[in-house]
Amino acid sequence: MPTSKLNRLTRWGSAALALGLVPACSTSSKVTGDSTASLAQAQPSEMKEEAGSAQAPRDHDGVDEEPESAAEAGAPAPRMPSPKPSSASAGAALSAPVARDNGARMKRAEVLSGVDASAPATPPPPPPAKMHPPGSRMQPPEPVSQGNSFAEHAPNTFTETATDRFSTFAVDVDTASYAVSRRYLTQGALPPHAAVRVEEFVNYFKYRYTPPEQGAFTVHLEGAPSPFNANRHFVRVGVQGKSVSRSQRKPAHLVFLVDTSGSMNQQDKLPLAKEAMKLAVKNLNENDTVAIVTYAGSTRDVLSPTPATSLERIYKAIDSLESGGGTAMGSGMEMAYKHAVKKASGSVVSRVVVLTDGDANIGPNLSADTMLNSIQGYVKEGVTLSAIGFGMGNYRDDLMEKLADKGNGNCFYIDSYKEAKKVFEAQLTGTLEVIAKDVKIQVEFDPKVVRRYRLVGYENRDIADKDFRDDKVDAGEIGAGHSVTAVYEVELTGEKAALGTVRIRAKAPNGTEAAEQSFPFEQRMVRATLDAASPDFRFALAVAATADVLRGSPSARGWNLATAQKLAEGATDGQSDREEFTKLVARARGLLGNAVARDAN
Length: 601
Fold this sequence. Notes:
Radius of gyration: 25 Å
Oligomer: single chain
Strand order of the largest sheet: 11-10-9-12-13-14
Distance between the termini: 68 Å
Structural class: alpha+beta
């Protein structure tokens, strides 16, 4: 080949290689799904105000009330492009189906009128990434995300009591679903069905349950007629864990495992995570210690175990964190657990706190299952886990939920500095210290009194009735001061007798054998009218009903969110979180109303 021709080919090859290294010019066909940039571009003009709010962490006291009809709303619910096929990544190897919110138009059951309607589930657009100056430690960006993903669980249906009188499930104190759905609603979009978990909506709020005088918890039972169906009642099972003061709490060793990958390079991700860590550290005790591990394309020890009193050193380590590269979550988990297990004992709280958007695309352990298989030995030694989610656009809710479930911990989603203060300041002790583990609840209904029943939520916490007394079967954990609330919809026979019995089985934090308690659900606990029920009961019912509507439950078809809103407004009890919820219901009514009007046209 002539030398001149060879030189020309060499120059063309070099140019092609250079272009291939630029993300915007890459010709790779391996990435599927819509990019986060296309999601932001897909927002209609009427969404600009809400989309702009994602530019920085925000509080939610300013949620404006939405009109309840399409005519009053003035604009249709946001539209998105037509569906595009996408495949789940290797990191989504979960037992339940995964729903991806990647800008596709989703089928939504319209529950206000009792007919099916199609409404878009528009994800809030991610904030733009900030620029890094030349010479910074920013690594090449990671692959484009496929969008937010959530595990799908079919809503519970009614069970004939004569056929099966037992309802058994593990407790759940997670609250991520409510915070995620709140973000969708405040930014002008209905959350995807799979993003809504009823129990996490209900358990987000505090209820005035009397704490136990002895033991780990007490049970509070109550019932009242349904506001949606004259032939049905709702009953509530409330469990209150014992409180532990900050001074009484065991010494804690926290290992912050921080995602510093390129996808965390947004104001509501790594910068907010850094503020959350500072809040947590500021509220620790003098005997507590802190370590920091990061993961991106590789893992890194940023801070060895350090006394929590060394604030300047810890804050300096936190401030040094920068984002860039891929996401080797599996390797990071392994390193963090190796740190945590060194101090695990019955007298020390040893907990890994993962702060991430959940995206895991690089590393030897990609799925929750494979990651957990590598750390199960540490979990058995007493290391617990808090999975803290941030941001939108590539949020792996399905992964975060499963990590918390199998890691004997809890799952939160932080969308603002206000929410960070709630989790890491007001609720820190409960977030850290487990007071009872493998907690199972079994409700035995009397078929003479209860004809049919339906547990509203807890689908992913279902336990086989035969496993209630099998102490080898894993269940949920309750932290200090946490409460757990479950709502049932029931049809009564009219027989005036006890509805049944509620049993709780749980182990001590370091125990291997469970203890069991039982509580009769007496007829006197069922109020004659809904107005006679406690404010806590009425508010919990309003929250459960709203969540059931938002997830498109067939059992909630025909339920009116106006009724749920009115019920909640009469039971706010002066609590700001409850008042915020009533405004979110109003906003959801407007969005659902817009969907009805659009489809009618």
